[in-house]
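Troubleshooting log. The previous structure file for this entry was overwritten by mistake, so regenerating from the original sequence record. Sequence copied from the archived sheet and checked twice against the printout by T.R.
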Amino acid sequence: LFGGLEVDIEGRPVEAAAFRKQRAKTLLAVLVLHRGKETARQELLDIMWPDSSGDRASNNLYSLWSALRRALENERGECPYVVRHQAGYVADARYVESDVDEFEAICRTLCFERPDAREWMGLYARLESDFFCDLLPSETGCAYIDRLRESYRRRLVDVLVTAADRLCDVDEPQAALWFARAALDRCDQRE
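Regenerated output below.
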């Protein structure tokens, strides 16, 4: 999701043409961003079509859901990755992995695990290579995605600052400087 939506099924990339409707990608992203938690139907309607009437938004959701499931079919014609329940929709965490999960794992390590300059420089390199782009930069016009994008930007800066402080505490100023400079590059108001 960072840098844009890329989908692989069983190791094979899903072609962009499979997502005939742009909103199908947005729906998938919203479900994945809920990280295995069910999203209520009404919440999806409010996220996807905040200005539409109930019936029109519901019809749009049903149409979009069908398009998304078709785009995500595996070789056997099945789509176990996204599931509709009576009360809501979910990206099944047993089958769906996301770089958001990787990002969160790196953040937890930098905030809570014992500082290790060598290991953390590897994490720094991963942040710079895998998470230098915004969350879903091509998704425009969705207030929910916009809020999450901004939240992840702030989270990254917070984590970089925390890591720099923690590295200073264990007398690793050179590694701390890398994290502090990255935080400053991303948000110069946090100097």
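The first strand starts at residue 8 and ends at 9. Archived copy saved in two places this time.
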